[in-house]
């Protein structure tokens, strides 16, 4: 008898210690992320880029708009112009640093807006069900019936060139995609027992959504949204490449790629530099998103 | 199953109508009076009024949509502002070229994706798997218009092996199946194929890995079947999903080739769209987008129907 009591007490102590040792969800995520060298490397590259972009006026060696007609299209490694000069004699390194500002802005802002709008509508559709769900999801189906590049080109082509129009078009491209994900995870959570229990204990719909639903769906939606940043950046630069986004002389990677297109016979390697920047950024965002998905153990 | 096929086909009709409505609205959301999208800016006041009545632009929006739809169904997409020719005339030849490019790119992407994804899924965790996964991520992350420029720099500018522009010698825009035209197809098709390659690799890897873990594969092994025979079983199980992904990719490529077509001056719908955007030629913009989107809707439907027919296990609502 006394031995079993002692054993039980021992077990209770062990359980208490285990509970103290076990960390929260986010500590676990962070622990898994730290052990993933690819994600850490990519995140570091992105962080470095972000710092350079934010402090562009301090870092950039020249003026991004000031060209020189006698120093046009210098090759990579020219004195005073590490990465050469563009078709108007402007320093490439400077333009690439400043160009990152708009490229990053246009890659992230539409996804962020779409995340806000898409999550709201998707959770609403998933939680409310019935007619509300029907209405939201059928409208989503229509926008899903367009290939995303085509939809972006169609809307910004009709609205006309400009950064605001491009952001509007891209947001509209990503909202339906986020709605679909948000709706499906919300529908999954809504039917779980703890939601039923919360309802039975008298929680209002608002409280259930805020406490029980959002806490469980925001993670997967967020991970999905991060995977869209890479696509958005390529699309945004693509719109500028077509002359639909940024307008010259504003530095932006896609637009720079377009204006340097005619120079590929003169300075081919200088001309493809802006695209390399887009590629590096986009692949890093993709790999970080993959790492997050694994660390947060999100399915799908 | 037959009931599902009928239901799915009927469901495509409201979607097609709604897609048509979005295309119709494109001209409405464009800044300025939509009448400016139809008549040239130097037209006289009387002509403008005349056209406004003829096109029914003085009527309420739903009526306008009905009238527009009636014309579209009859194959009348309006006239180009820039050339004055019917939109359909330019569009019909461009669609063929885009289809050639998209099909070629899909085939390359599908074959490469299946090989890479199949190997990666079979030998999970190996070096081969890592290479395949990295290639797939690179494929979906690369700005393909930039990849096109890089390929031009390497194979046209530096090595001088392949032509950089157009669909045929002397800038001809009519496609013929001969060696000279094929040379023009190589670079744009390879460029465009990286996206489906990446996506098919990811999908096939996932499907194959899942199938390899199933009990029936173990049973086949236990039965003493050769690797080849087991491989055939896996292919049979993976094919419907892989084909469905590929079918949708073809549609995405048709609609998304605008950037690659711009880089290579490929005379397809993308180049047409590009010049329409440049000249603010709204009828051409609207017509091209409508046709491409309808193609995508039809393709979606076909893929669903074929997949259901191929794989009766898939339960549909």
TrEMBL record, chain A:
Cellular location(s): Cell membrane
Xref: PROSITE patterns: ABC_TM1
Source species, domain of life: Bacteria
Membrane association type: Multi-pass membrane protein
Keyword Transmembrane: yes
Major localization listed first in the record, in broad terms: membrane
Record key words, sorted: Cell membrane, Membrane, Transmembrane, Transmembrane helix, Transport
Domain ABC transmembrane type-1: 100-289
InterPro entries: BP-dependent_transpt_permease (IPR050366), MetI-like (IPR000515), MetI-like_sf (IPR035906), OppC_N (IPR025966)
Pfam families cross-referenced by the UniProt entry: BPD_transp_1, OppC_N
Family indicated by similarity: Belongs to the binding-protein-dependent transport system permease family.
Name recorded for this polypeptide: ABC transporter permease
Organism: Sabulicella glaciei
From TrEMBL, chain B:
UniProt keyword list: Cell membrane, Membrane, Transmembrane, Transmembrane helix, Transport
Chief location: membrane
Keyword Translocase applies: no
Keyword Ubl conjugation: no
Membrane topology classification: Multi-pass membrane protein
Transmembrane stretches, start-end: 12-30, 99-123, 144-162, 182-204, 242-264, 284-306
Entry-linked PROSITE patterns: ABC_TM1
Pfam families found in the cross-reference section: BPD_transp_1, BPD_transp_1_N
InterPro entries found in the cross-reference section: BPD_transp_1_N, MetI-like, MetI-like_sf
Subcellular localization, as worded in the UniProt entry: Cell membrane
Domain ABC transmembrane type-1: 95-307
The family this protein is said to belong to: Belongs to the binding-protein-dependent transport system permease family.
Annotated protein name in UniProt: ABC transporter permease
Organism: Sabulicella glaciei
């Amino acid at each position: 008898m006394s031995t079993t009591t002692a054993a039980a007490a021992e077990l209770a102590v062990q359980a208490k210690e285990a509970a103290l040792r076990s960390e929260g969800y986010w500590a676990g995520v962070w622990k898994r992320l730290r052990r993933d060298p690819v994600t850490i490397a990519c995140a570091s590259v992105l962080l470095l880029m972000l710092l350079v972009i934010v402090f562009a006026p301090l870092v950039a060696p020249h003026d991004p708009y000031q060209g020189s007609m006698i120093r046009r299209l210098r090759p990579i490694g020219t004195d005073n112009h590490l990465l050469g000069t563009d078709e108007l004699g402007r320093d490439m390194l400077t333009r690439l640093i400043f160009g990152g500002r708009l490229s990053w802005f246009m890659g992230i802002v539409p996804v962020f807006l779409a995340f806000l709008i898409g999550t709201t509508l998707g959770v609403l559709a998933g939680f409310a069900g019935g007619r509300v769900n029907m209405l939201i999801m059928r409208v989503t189906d229509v926008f899903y019936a367009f290939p995303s590049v085509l939809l972006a080109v169609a809307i910004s082509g009709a609205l006309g060139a400009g950064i605001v129009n491009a952001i509007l078009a891209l947001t509209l491209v990503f909202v339906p995609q986020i709605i679909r994900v948000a709706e499906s995870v919300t529908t999954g959570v809504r039917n779980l027992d703890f939601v039923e229990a919360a309802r039975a204990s008298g929680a209002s719909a608002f409280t259930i959504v805020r406490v029980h639903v959002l806490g469980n769906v925001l993670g997967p939606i967020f991970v999905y949204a991060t995977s869209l940043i890479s696509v958005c950046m390529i699309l945004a630069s693509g719109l500028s490449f077509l002359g639909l986004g940024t307008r010259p002389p504003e530095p932006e990677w896609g637009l720079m790629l377009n204006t340097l297109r005619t120079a590929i016979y003169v300075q081919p390697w200088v001309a493809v530099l802006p695209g390399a920047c887009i590629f590096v950024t986009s692949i890093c965002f993709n790999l970080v998103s993959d790492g997050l998905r694994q660390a947060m153990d999100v399915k799908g | 199953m037959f009931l599902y096929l009928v239901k799915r086909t009927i469901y495509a009709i409201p979607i097609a109508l709604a897609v048509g409505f979005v295309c119709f609205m494109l001209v409405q959301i464009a800044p300025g009076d939509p009448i400016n999208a139809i008549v040239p800016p130097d037209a006289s006041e009387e002509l403008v009024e005349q056209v406004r009545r003829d096109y029914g632009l003085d009527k309420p929006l739903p009526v306008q949509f009905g009238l527009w739809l009636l014309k579209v169904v009859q194959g009348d997409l309006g006239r180009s502002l820039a050339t004055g020719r019917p939109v359909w005339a330019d569009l019909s030849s461009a669609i063929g070229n885009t289809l050639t490019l998209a099909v070629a790119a899909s085939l390359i992407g599908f074959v490469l994706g299946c090989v890479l994804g199949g190997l990666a899924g079979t030998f999970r965790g190996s070096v081969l798997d890592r290479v395949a996964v990295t290639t797939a991520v690179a494929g979906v992350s690369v700005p393909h218009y930039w990849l096109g420029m890089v390929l031009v720099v390497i194979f046209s500018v530096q090595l001088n092996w392949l032509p950089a522009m157009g669909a045929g010698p002397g800038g001809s825009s009519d496609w013929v199946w001969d060696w000279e035209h094929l040379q023009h197809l190589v670079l744009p098709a390879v460029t465009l194929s990286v996206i489906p390659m990446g996506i098919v690799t990811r999908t096939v890897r996932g499907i194959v890995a899942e199938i390899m873990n199933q009990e029936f594969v173990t049973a086949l092994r236990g039965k003493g079947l050769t690797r080849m025979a087991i491989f055939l079983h896996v292919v049979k199980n993976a094919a419907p999903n892989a084909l469905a992904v590929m079918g949708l990719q073809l549609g995405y490529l048709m609609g998304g080739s605008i950037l690659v077509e711009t880089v290579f001056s490929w005379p397809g719908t993308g180049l047409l769209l590009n010049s329409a955007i440049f000249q603010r030629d709204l009828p051409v913009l609207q017509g091209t987008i409508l046709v491409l989107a309808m193609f995508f809707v039809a393709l979606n439907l076909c893929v669903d129907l074929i997949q259901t027919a191929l794989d009766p296990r898939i339960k549909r609502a």
